[in-house]
Specification:
Layout lengths: L1 E3 L9 E11 L5 H15 L4 E12 L2 E12 L1
Parallel strand pairs: 1-3
Antiparallel strand pairs: 2-4, 3-4
Length: 75
C-alpha cells in the first residue's frame, strides 16, 4: 500500500471510497498503529494506494486519539 497525492495517481485509477481509522492515544506509536488499520481497511476494498491522507490528533484530557482519513484508490 502506498500513500500518494492526486498528481501522482495514474490515469484510469478507480476511487473506492473513504476509509477512516482511529486509535487511542497521541504518542510515538499511535500514528503507525492508525496507519496500519487504515491500510487494512483499504486493502479489504481492493485498494493499492491511499490519497489525501489527513491526520487528526485530539488531545482532550479525557480522550486522546489519533485518527486518519484518506481515499482508497485502485490503480
Amino acid at each position: 500500500m502506498r500513500v500518494s497525492t492526486l498528481p501522482q495517481i495514474r490515469d484510469g485509477a478507480v476511487d473506492l471510497g473513504a476509509v477512516y481509522a482511529s486509535v487511542e492515544g497521541v504518542n510515538e506509536h499511535s500514528y503507525d498503529e492508525c496507519l496500519h488499520e487504515l491500510e487494512e481497511q483499504a486493502a479489504a476494498l481492493g485498494a493499492n494506494a491511499l490519497v489525501a491522507l489527513q491526520l487528526v490528533q485530539s488531545q482532550f484530557q479525557w480522550n486522546q486519539r489519533t485518527s486518519l482519513l484518506a481515499t482508497a484508490v485502485k490503480e
